[in-house]
Amino acid sequence: MRLVQITDCHLRADPLAPSRAGFPLRQLQAVVEHARRQRPDVVLVSGDVSQDATPASYRHALDVLAALDCPWYWLPGNHDHLTHMADARPLHDQVDLGEWRMLLLNTQVVGQPHGEVGAAQCDWLNEQLADDTRPTLIAMHHPPLEVGADWMDAIGLQDRERFWATLEGHEQVKAVLCGHIHQAFAGCRAMQEEGTEVAVYGTPATADQFLPGAASFAIDQASRPGYRVIDLGQRGLATWVERVTL
């Protein structure tokens, strides 16, 4: 089973609108075309599809993502308009991946850049994990770990300890996939069960890239758009990042 993660498209109603360092719609088109060559079974779009929260920006996304030869799913980021997004294409909270499954969380706090899972969603997550012991991926927009950039860590997942506490005792959770950070990232969280940890993977944006390790907001002018490939098998997962030359 091959999953591709695309994230942080930041589209606008104007298809020719630039970002700080490029042209988001053109970059999304290039990333999707490149990702198709990986022959994914499923694609995840992990939030911030829109920059201006307009219905037109989601229509642009649908037009581009229609080129995929597989099912795809999306979840909201802090910039997204939940109603416009759901009107364009339904939101799902779980995806059957055969021997694996993926649970999708909404970490948006309306009007704020940071994220939260929230008590109700943590209760739901605990119930889902208790009912199905298949190897599991969790997808969300905001990173549940610090990524080493002061300004970004300040707007990450605010209730991360509650989230991690929810995962305790559920050893089938193998990895968390997140967006928001506009850069490749790999980390892990050690769990209380000895020898158990959960991997956390961040993914380059299709739009601008952020400079790793920056104390304040900074664009990484030398980096390129990209996406993440995740291969799921009986013995675990393998993952890597692909960069796209425009």
TrEMBL record:
Looking up InterPro entries in the UniProt record yields: Calcineurin-like_PHP, CNP_phosphodiesterase-III, GpdQ/CpdA-like, Metallo-depent_PP-like
So where does this one cross the membrane? none
- In Gene Ontology terms, what is one molecular function of this protein? metal ion binding
Instruction: Pinpoint the Calcineurin-like phosphoesterase domain residues.
Output: 1-183
Q: Which UniProt keywords apply?
A: Hydrolase, Iron, Metal-binding
| One Pfam family linked to the record | Metallophos
Write out the similarity annotation: Belongs to the cyclic nucleotide phosphodiesterase class-III family.
For this protein, the record's PANTHER family field holds: CYCLIC NUCLEOTIDE PHOSPHODIESTERASE CBUA0032-RELATED (PTHR42988:SF2), PHOSPHOHYDROLASE (PTHR42988)
Name of this protein: Icc protein
